[in-house]
Design a protein that fits this description.
Layout: E1 4-8, H1 12-24, E2 29-33, H2 41-45, H3 52-55, H4 58-65, E3 70-73, H5 84-90, E4 93-96, E5 102-103, E6 116-118, H6 119-126, E7 143-147, H7 151-161, H8 164-167, H9 174-182, E8 187-191, H10 203-208, E9 215-219, H11 234-251, E10 260-265, E11 270-274, E12 277-280, E13 283-286, E14 289-292, E15 296-297, E16 307-309, H12 312-315, H13 321-340, H14 357-371, H15 384-391
Parallel strand pairs: 1-2, 1-4, 2-3, 4-16, 6-14, 7-8, 7-14, 8-10, 9-10
Antiparallel strand pairs: 5-15, 11-12, 12-13
Helix pairs in contact: 1-13, 14-15
The protein binds NADP nicotinamide-adenine-dinucleotide phosphate.
């Protein structure tokens, strides 16, 4: 008999937890459970479609899925298909790796207007998440307010700013790409409530904004006359100093040379949103679309004996994918210590009918086959019926 571990959520932190477990105890039986018929969570649905290099991490995850005692169980919703109690009863340990998939609220009047979108919903649409088939109506959108000064805000601004040829080799959903290409976009404002010395952009992602084909990046030089906080640890000081240097380069750019402008605006806290405009602490800005990129929250899950959390579900919505590896490995060591104190449970396989790895590979193959001739990595299947039909071999 060997221990059986359920990992709820087949995203990066779930896979890294599986990796950590197998490094310590190679004969464990692991079920990677996901609500979707497809694995990889944030890598498939959250990482920007033009960042294929980041998405390449799935090759490591595929190697785990190829291990004989690792089982993918897709299309299993914990709560609907199997209760948390059944899960705890059926496995020796449960690892919750459900991430954070709900957009945080700004908490200002007008937030519920239809032209206000959260970044998760917006990016999930571009990435073909089957629960987010509908994107914003971009047909009359000229001016966009992107709220937040993190990498997600850069993703959103960049994906709107890039032209069709810059998106041609990505796996963006074609309908979303067409809507962006047809929109009369002119100005994208990336809005920080604090000064540039507090922005959480990483250097490479910020510098990328200066290399866009159809958009010029701009910033107000006066806002950049600031110092990086001396109390910050050295790596943060270096990152922020480099960010200020990149932004000063944007301030030296000449507006109007390209069809679109991406404006970096600082010290501008959102106060209210109205149709066609957003009121900021620094003044009112015309905005036909507002996209909030201010972080995420997660769904509640019951903790308890033998239940462990990893990744964003444990630490909150910060940290890049590689940063989650060390965290998941550390939790995996805790889980192994817990298992060592206990005999494996016996009993029937608790897993209900699910999409297995062969089903996922049928989806994968179909997507790659339609994308290949178009020079794209894949064209995603974006509706539940097609995903399930193809996974089941219909
Ligand atoms: P983030 O870096 O925490 O940025 C969130 C931003 O929202 C901050 O600028 C924050 O401002 C702002 N904010 C929060 N509440 C606000 C409010 N009420 N009004 C106005 N602004 C508000 O998080 P993220 O951009 O969501 O990214 C999440 C994690 O994923 C990060 O670790 C990020 O690096 C990572 N990521 C990486 C990549 C990549 O490597 N290419 C891409 C995407 C995401 P304050 O600082 O003032 O609170």
């Amino acid at each position: 008999m060997t221990h059986r571990v359920a990992i709820v959520g087949a995203g990066p932190s779930g896979f890294y937890a599986a990796d950590g477990l197998l490094r310590g105890q190679p004969d464990l039986r692991i079920d990677l459970i996901d609500r979707l018929p497809t694995p990889f969570g944030l890598v498939r649905s959250g990482v920007a479609p033009d960042h294929q290099g980041t998405k390449a991490v799935v090759r490591q995850f595929e190697r785990l899925l190829a291990q004989p005692d690792v089982r993918f169980a897709g299309n299993v919703d914990i709560g609907r298909d199997l209760s948390w109690d059944e899960l705890r009863a059926g496995y020796d340990a449960v690892i919750v790796a459900t991430g954070m998939v709900i957009d945080r609220k700004l908490g200002v009047p007008g937030e519920e207007l239809p032209h206000v979108w959260g970044s998760w919903k917006f990016v999930a649409w571009l990435n073909g998440h089957p629960d987010f088939r509908q994107g914003p109506d971009l047909s009359a959108v000229r001016r966009v307010a992107v709220i937040g000064n993190g990498n997600v805000a850069l993703d959103v601004a960049r994906l709107l700013a890039k032209g069709p040829e810059e998106m041609a080799r990505t796996d963006i959903v074609p309908e979303a790409a067409a809507a962006i290409a047809a929109a009369p976009l002119a100005d994208i404002h990336v809005i920080g409530r604090r000064g540039p010395q507090h922005a959480s952009f990483t250097n490479n992602e910020l510098a990328e904004m200066g290399r866009l084909g159809r958009a010029v990046a701009l910033a107000d030089a006066a806002a950049l006359a600031v110092e990086v906080p001396a109390s910050d640890p050295t790596p943060e000081r270096l990152r922020k100093t480099k960010n200020l240097e990149i932004l000063r380069g944007f301030a030296a750019n000449v507006p109007g040379g390209k069809p679109l402008s991406v404006h970096f605006r600082f010290n501008s806290a959102p106060l209210a949103i109205r149709p066609g405009e957003i009121e900021l602490s620094s003044g009112t800005l015309p905005a036909d679309l507002v996209i909030t990129c201010i972080g995420y929250r997660g769904e509640d899950f019951p903790m308890g004996e033998g239940v462990f959390a990893v990744g964003w579900a444990r630490r909150g919505p910060t940290g890049t994918i590689p940063a989650n590896r060390a965290d998941s490995h550390a939790v995996a060591r805790e889980v192994l210590a817990w298992l060592r104190e206990r005999d494996p449970k016996s009993g029937p396989d608790p897993m209900p009918a699910s999409i297995d790895v062969a089903g996922w590979h049928r989806i994968d193959k179909a997507e790659i086959a339609t994308g290949g001739p178009l020079g794209r990595p894949r064209i995603k299947l974006i509706d539940w019926k097609s995903l399930l039909d193809i996974a089941q071999g219909d």
